[in-house]
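Project standup — Tuesday

K.O.: blocked on the structure for the chain from last sprint. Re-posting the sequence here as requested.
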Amino acid sequence: MADFRYVAKSMDGKIHRGTMEAAGESALQQLLKEQGMFLITAREGGRGKKRRKLSSRQLSEFSKSLSTLLASGVSIVRGLEIIADEEGISPAAKSLYLEILADLRKGISLSEAMELRRCFPELMLGMIRSGEGSGNIDVVMNRLALHYERESRLKQQVQSTMTYPVVLLVMCILVVIVIVTFILPQFEELFSEMESLPGITEFLMAASDFLVNQWYVALLILFMLGIILRIVSKIEKVRRTIDYIKVHMPVIGKLNRVIYTARFARTLSSLYSSGMPIAPALQTAGGTVGNLYVEQQFEKVTGMVRSGVPLSQALKEVDGFLRKLSSTILVGEESGRLDVMLDSIAMTMEQEAEEATKRLVTLLEPVLICVMALLVGFIIVAVMLPIYESYGAIEGAA
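H.V.: unblocked you, prediction finished:
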């Protein structure tokens, strides 16, 4: 038995794609026939080799290169040959493009060949399918290039803005470790001569002794906690709860809502502009938000749109987006320029996300400095308190 990825047509003319296990292509054809479908193409090893997901920057560069070549009149096959031979391309990317190229030469469509690799996002696959159906794949690739370029720029802005707080946090942790493991042991002989120590001093000295003499146990505990947290975070209910908190946290929740709104609006704008019907475009865009709590609400939203509810009204029900999104879409629906308004709100939200990130970092800097000061202050108090008490006892005896 082998896995096959197939493309089949049903009696009503609809195209169906999927994977199925069968003894051979003839057996697959018979199985599909029993389901009322006729096989068009089939490829063995349907589930394909799972590759590492491509970054937004890689997707943008690939889309831009292919869009430019297609607009110049170059065929898709020749375009991929040129892209695969470009200087500076990584061996993994070159191998990926050559595999797609081999499938194209066998008559498989670009979207199918890319889907088999399992490293391209559903948004890109959906838009390319739409472009293949309408015959304007060069325009679609250009939209994809712009989409992933903006997504990459937003991620880089967030990462670069968060660099300083992360460095400050790491420095804070390192300072505490140095004090606890190198400086505090110098006071151990002094404290051992005292009859009794304050509770905070005993706690601090015990922590210092543990980190110095049993550091490997501390590393093992951290390693196990990391594994446990990773496993627990993959549980759907836990992920949903965490993502719910991300949306409703003070200050940070507002930033997350801005980012989710911008991401959704940009994706929906790209899909809708490429010619995809609004209901499937809405479902695909909802799955790219990056927050499980928000994404799970789109089954209801899509159902409302299919039943005739205006998109602006349906999106009002989503907990996790800014109200500005639904009001802007309402203007687009009334004016008949929904794609323009979606693109406009996406650009506005991306600018707001950048500004909100900068404000968040401005707030985080003094908070982290205060945390560092409190930790160092706690250590100083724990060290000086027994010394001060001993001096007090000597003065009292005198």
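K.O.: great, moving the ticket to review. The two ends are 94 Å apart (CA to CA). The chain has 18 helices and three strands.
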